[in-house]
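We treat protein structure as text, and this decision shapes the records that our systems exchange. The tokens are whole numbers drawn from a learned vocabulary of local backbone shapes. Below, we set out a record of this kind in full and without editing:
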Amino acid sequence: MMKGDKTQIIEKITIIGGTHGNEYIGPYFLAKAGLAGIYQGNAIEVSTLLANPEAFLRARRFIDQDLNRSFSPPILTGTQDPYECRRAREIARHFSQNETGQHFIVDLHSTTANMGITLIVRDNEPLNLHTAAYVQKNIPEARILLSDIDHSQHHSLNNISPFGIVIEVGPTPNAVLRHDLFETTEKVVDLVVKFLTLSKTREEPRLPDEVAVFRFREKVPYPRNEQGELTAMIHKDLQDRDYRLLKTGQPIFMTLQGDEIRYSGEPGYPVFINEAAYYLEDTAFIITDKVTASLN
């Protein structure tokens, strides 16, 4: 964010949990925030939203379809009846009816993959990257993932506003509440709120001139037969090696017959390796490129 650019002053922050109903950290963070009155009296208005209450009650990722893939214009302007379509329209109306200034969305997620602390941002708004960089400055092990080439396909909840960040923590099983990752999420959210508040009051902390980020390149599907059945699993030498360089020729799958399948693409950094939810999307992992992003 350029100093003096008032167009990016945030007036509201909404912390969202339960976009996926079986990711428990977000909903229970919202519950704690409500009980403790966290962020009351903050210079920026902070509110919370449970995105998919029905799926949360059933400990399921979704009821009819993935809510985080349901914010496309045809759905938001249509009359489709699946629960997540109706819920997406309700959420979109909520934000449009309460929009009185720039709105920043903090979407809380967890993953079964060994992603540690991951901050997912779109880089078409400098404020998003600056916010993530501030978190990383205070939590050096946090990684920044740029998803600008991916959101056009997915139409995620964060598309409601140009300003936002997705917080992913893992690994953790679905429908499990882990104390350590809960505390990690609290720390990250506190830093996001602090940075945006300081920016509004013109006390924006000093950031480095550039930051290392991981940019989405491509999805790698699972090997399957003609019937669409899995014929291989993630190789043990790749499992849990998120953000570690994958070189051409390294094993990535082990077939059910005991044969290795090796990586034939250009070297890159895999993320969301063996994420449980991505079996439905036929994504074994995502390859990213590690690049440097300017903060000036």
